[in-house]
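Hi support team,

I submitted a single chain yesterday and got back a structure, but I'm not sure I'm reading the token output correctly. Could someone confirm the output below corresponds to the sequence I sent? I've pasted both exactly as they appear in my results page.

Thanks,
R.
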Amino acid sequence: MALLPAALERLLHELTRLPGIGRRGAERIALHLLEAPPEQAGQLAEALAALRREVRPCGLCGNWAEGERCAICADPRRATGQLCVVERAVDIWAFEAAEAYQGRYHVLGGTLSPLAGVTADDLRITELEDRLGPEGISEVILATNASVDGDATAHYLSQRLSERGLRTTRIAQGVPLGGHLDYADPGTLRLALQGRRPLG
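Hi R., thanks for writing in. Yes, this is the structure output for that exact sequence:
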């Protein structure tokens, strides 16, 4: 195969560093940009520059924001008293898309992971505790992922927050909506049974 122009090879290299984009996907994107009107590439470059220049973590919850506070923290209509703790900002987007929660959030910035060397000091746990009193939080909803590290983090936070007399809850886990039981793994079925609730 003929050598590609250096600029094109560099773009392909950078695109393949993005999650979910392999070499073929990178080639399709690069060719689209080469064949598209020149202003489209310029608009993409400006959007990327603006992203890095203008978006930063919210000073309160850790969600992505254009100012000191994200749109959720700045919204006075959001319910107070409940705080949903998530691993990453993208988890907030999932809750917001479901339109099932109207409270506030707190982003930990990851999970406890002894194998990766991530300890409680590496997460935004102190910032979480600093919010509890001033915001009048009565319940902390632990919404970490159903993984070994997510469960360990939820258990650690539950113990740490229970010392303050706070109600801590964990989101239910189990069979997804529209899922079939014969495709569910044993762990999922066990969690679904443990999290059962009465009808009506």
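A quick pointer for reading it: The longest helix spans residues 38-54. Let us know if anything else looks off.

Best,
Support desk
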